[in-house]
Every structure is written in C-alpha cells, then in structure tokens.
Automatic annotation (TrEMBL):
Keywords, alphabetical: Hydrolase, Serine esterase, Signal
Pfam family, one: GCE_fung
Coiled-coil stretches noted in the UniProt entry, renumbered to this chain: none
Domain 4-O-methyl-glucuronoyl methylesterase-like: 231-380
Superkingdom classification of source: Bacteria
Protein name (Swiss-Prot/TrEMBL): Putative acetyl xylan esterase
GO terms of molecular function: carboxylic ester hydrolase activity
Residues spanning the signal sequence: 1-19
Amino acid sequence: MKIKLLSTLLLITFASAFAQQAANRPTVVAGFPVNYNEDSVGTYTLPELLKTADGKPVTTARQWTEKRRPELLRLAEENQFGKMPPKPKDLSFHAFDDGTPAFDGKAIRKQVTVYFTKDTSEHRMNLLIYTPAKAVKPVPLLMNISFTAYNQIIDDPGLRVGEIWNKEGKKVKADKPTPFGKLNVEQFIDAGIGFATVYYGDIEPDFKDGLTHGIRKTYLKPGQTEPAADEWGAISAWAWGLSRAMDYFETDRQIDTKRIALQGASRLGKTVLWAGIRDPRFKMVIASISGEGGAALARRNYGETIRHISDPSRYLYQFAPNYHGWAGRVNDMPIDAHMLVALMAPRPLLLQTGSTDYWSDPKGEFLSAVAAAPVYRLFGETAPSTSATMPAAGDTALLMNRLGYFMHEGGHTVLPEDWQLFIRYMQKYL
C-alpha cells in the first residue's frame, strides 16, 4: 500500500504553516515576536529536578518515586494542565463490531463506543481496535489519538463513518477524504502489534467554546461557567479520554494491558505525554512534535512560547487557567518541560521531532531530554548523556534509549518512515 504521510493532523490550520519552510517562518504571532535565532534564546536556569521542595537532594529511585515525583505532578497539574476527575462511575462500553476479519484476514477489527455518562445520547467516543488474527496470546498495542475520524485515515470499508467538528463549531459527517492520506495499519499487525485509535473531538472539541460541548461541561459545579484556575483544560480532557480507552482495554482479553503505548502529534503529542504521566497503566509514550507546552523547554525563547499559546485568540482553553499567568514571567514558573519528561521515568518515552519544525523547537525537546536524563539514570535506564550532542536529522543514535530522541528530516508531521521506527522502539521495550 502506498502511504502518504499522516501529517497528523493539526496541520489543518496551525503549526505546519509556520514550520515547513524557513522562508515562511512568521516573525510575529498573536502580536508577539517570534525568535528563531539561537543567539537570542536568552539565558535561563531550569528549576531543580532532583531536589525536593524542602531542599533535600534526591539520590535514589525510591526518593524520586515516593517524594519528588508526587511534588512535580502536583505542580504540573496546578500550573499547566489542570486537575482532572477520576474514572466516571457510569462509564460503559458497547462493542458494535465485536470481532470482524480485516485486511484479508490478517487482523481482527473491533469498534467500540465508550460512554462517559449514564445518558448515552452524548459524551461518547468511538474506539477502533485491530489485533493480529494469528495471535495466540494477548498482544501489545499502540494507542493513537487522531485529529480526524478513524474512517478518514484508515482504508477499511467496514468502518463506521464518524462525525467531526468543522471550523464553524458544528458536528458534520466525516464522509470526505482528508488531505493527509491513509495510515498503514498492516505494518503494526505484521510486527505482532495491535493498533487502536480515537478521534479527539469525540472527547472534547478543539476550539474556544468546546467546553460547552465536551466532557468538561459535565463536571462544572452549579453556577460555574469556566474551569477554576487549577482545573483541566482541553489537553487534560483528551488525556482523560485516553484513560477511558484503557479502562476498556482492561476488559478485552486479546489485549495485553501491561504493554500499551500511546502516540499522538503536536497538541496531541502534549496530550499523550500528559496522559502517560497521569496514568501509569500506559507503559510507553511516543510524543511526536509536542513543542511548547509539551517536551520543549519553555524557558528557551525559540519558536512558540507561552505568550503565543495564551493569547485569547489562540489556545487558552487547552490548559489550566493558571498556566497563562506565567506567560510574561516564564523564568519564575516552578516547572518546565524537563520535569514533564522526567515524570515518565522509568517507563519508555520517545520524543520525535522534525528538523525544520522551528515553531516547535526540536532543539528545545532535545535539551529537555538531556536535562531529564539523570532521573532515568536513577533507575539504571538509558538516556542521553549530559554531554550529548544533538543528533542530525535522520540520525538514530539516541532513538533506542529508554528515554529516546529522534529528529526526522522535515517539518511538523509524522512521516511514513517514522512509524517503522516507532515499531522498532516498541519491539525493544514492549
């Protein structure tokens, strides 16, 4: 099958226009200048990773797990992503396609509706799952969160036609092709790996007024019209939805729930990173081109910054309201991206970037991995050394570390060849 890139997705209106060509880099976004000059990133000191709030050094994996990690998790919740609610008591599942041969009998397909509330007329997501037909025991699985309905990105005539949110904030049938081509699911099946995906808009729409339609509205207190300062934004809502997919996986005997990886790109790269941090049931995260608010260091003034995210015309709704208070004083923020990366330790985490994705700051992600590496080494796991040089585009030298990093030649996208590298990474660590 000829595969075009699954240019995940968010290229629809956003970052790829900024990232693909150096000549087209914007110099001003939302009224704020954008820096692409390494000489102008500014000086900064990252907040202490291996020192507790009361000033004690962290020298063992146990100290990290029992003391420092909970401290940083609270800081990330309160200052960036917001607190999210637990598993809903009325969660339920309906497998409307409970096991159909697909891809010439190579795979078994399931389509499952996950209902978040007792009222099943809304607040539901459709989950698509493929597992290898020849598997004789539960299989590992890659869980992807997508910017489009799954029938638009996978070539399988048996898929339900989903609904997506259009630019006018209305739900419409996802019955038209996307410009991004199809994803080759068979490559996962051939490797003995299951594949699942869900459309993020089923959980929460991706626009300013999405709160009035998405799952977050069901958790607003009486009289409340907006989340409190430390409550969840849309990214946390999408991450919460991924945990509800995991709740379903735990009911499916064909899936090995101790070997499930998450993958998403751009804002969904931020989402899977946060989902993996919050839900340790996910044993691996592949965060693609996650940039500012994801794996790229916020204190580096390069490409997108919190100022650009926090402008009212842009992405306020994706983060906890507290996050935007740091836009003008990022050096005072108690957290930075290296802490998010470290919060995944010791589980495998792969950061995938693009060499011309200047808006997302691939070097900022590399430096974040280097700064987080000491935590992985507390557990005896492989990670970039503190003296590591940033790999050139296409160089796989750091790919297979447990804390891995890979930069393809290209921009804000996931390329067909990237998926093969993800499979290699999964085969090593799952």
